[in-house]
Specification:
- The protein is an alpha/beta fold and 385 residues long.
- α2 links the parallel β2 and β3.
- The chain is globular.
- The model has no long low-confidence stretch (mean pLDDT 93).
- One of its GO terms (molecular function) is acyltransferase activity, transferring groups other than amino-acyl groups.
């Protein structure tokens, strides 16, 4: 990975730095790579639909197969899924996966132009509903349904900041108190500045290979990708999902028994032949502190409404029964959209290898990542060792 922050450089420099770090970690030369899959940088880093070929050119054209994918915040998982499919199909032995972004300060905004048929454009232009407004709706929903409090949300930030303080790649490496969260500015009630993640520059990369390739290159027991879930929502949706600001009617058709986010994890568990009881750790999408509590329930760590209790019991902190966001999460990194899901898998890899340093989860064997991309892109990866 390239350290995340606000560096003011091209996303290409972050992606190529992350790629070179991944190649060095794998003990491979760039010329060994048979395929490059790039997670597209569309919104902020560069005004074009470029990733795979951009990184291949920056590393030096050598004729590798190239693929570019876009699924908003799920782009990294789509890139990993594409690389894995190429390996399983026999199209490549070893694939480089890269994502990077350079993000302006402030709220993420829709692409320019007048596009009344675009639900993302509509929610910004017609309703003024920025991402934090959506996060606040979810937070208020949890307070109403489950009795969650602003203090519970603050404790998520306290937990993740403590982990981020141990991660040299994180943008924010200072511990935070609940009092500091409560004293930060209100952005979208009940969420404050320290309840929501920033926008960042950053890059992440992975080298994926077949087992045969790994063994030939002296890696007899590598971390294995056991599942990649990229499922879409099921009609009707009775809970808001960005960018839609309304739900479907459930008058004629009953909603599915599980939410969209829960279905993402369920598909990953089914493909992996594992369940939440097998997990050693999880990396989830803490776009806001309240959303992290939602993910606890969606990935099966506890029953609906019990996320805050799990947090209060200390189960999801470093040293707890099942640590969540040992990297420090987005609260410590900020959003660099095409790199985020790849960075989550980087953290799982270090944890499963036992090389995560001061934030290491003892004896880690199974991890899951989970997030969702705009417009209904599911994203979860299960890795094992």
């Amino acid at each position: 990975m390239h350290p995340w922050g606000k560096w003011g450089r091209s996303f290409v420099s972050y992606g190529t730095a992350a790629a070179r770090a991944a190649l060095a970690d794998a003990g491979l030369d760039w010329s060994d790579i048979g395929s490059v899959v790039g997670a597209d940088t569309m919104r902020c880093g560069y005004p074009g639909y470029v990733a795979g070929a951009t990184f291949a050119q920056a590393l030096g054209w050598q004729g590798a197969r190239v693929t570019s994918v876009y699924a908003a915040c799920a782009s990294g998982a789509q890139a990993i899924g594409t690389a894995r499919a190429q390996i399983l199909a026999g199209l490549a032995d070893v694939v480089l996966v890269v994502g990077a972004d350079s993000t302006p300060k402030g709220f993420l905004a829709p692409a320019g132009g007048e596009r009344p048929g675009d639900p993302d454009w509509l929610r910004f232009r017609v309703l003024g509903a920025t991402n934090p407004a959506y996060f606040a709706l979810y937070a208020r929903r949890r307070m109403a349904l489950y009795g969650d409090t602003a203090e519970d949300f603050a404790q998520v930030k306290v937990k993740n900041a403590a982990a981020g303080a141990l991660n040299p790649l994180a943008r924010y490496r200072a511990r935070v108190t609940a009092e500091e969260v409560a004293a930060s500015a209100v952005v979208a009630d009940p969420l404050r500045l320290l309840d929501i993640c920033a926008t960042s520059d950053g890059g992440a990369a992975l080298v994926l290979s077949s087992m045969e390739f790994a063994r030939r290159h002296g890696r007899p027991d590598p971390v294995r990708v056991r599942a990649v879930s990229t499922v879409s929502p099921t009609y009707p949706k009775a809970v808001l999902d960005l960018p839609d600001i309304a739900t479907d009617s459930a008058a004629a058709v009953s909603p599915a028994p599980h939410t969209f986010r829960a279905s993402i994890a369920r598909a990953a568990y089914e493909e992996a032949g594992l369940g939440p009881e097998d997990l050693s750790l999880a990396e989830v999408y803490d776009l806001s502190t309240a959303l992290e509590l939602e993910w606890y329930e969606d990935i099966g760590l506890c029953a609906p409404g019990e996320g805050a209790k799990l947090l209060r019991d200390g189960a999801t902190a470093l040293g707890g029964r099942l640590p969540v966001n040992t990297s420090g999460g987005l609260g410590s990194f900020g959003e660099a959209v095409p790199a985020q899901a790849i960075a989550q898998v980087c953290e799982l890899t270090w944890q499963l290898r036992g090389t995560a340093g001061d934030r290491q989860v003892p004896g880690a064997r199974v991890g899951i990542t989970a997030n969702q991309g705009l417009f209904g892109h599911g994203s979860a990866v299960v890795a094992v060792r």
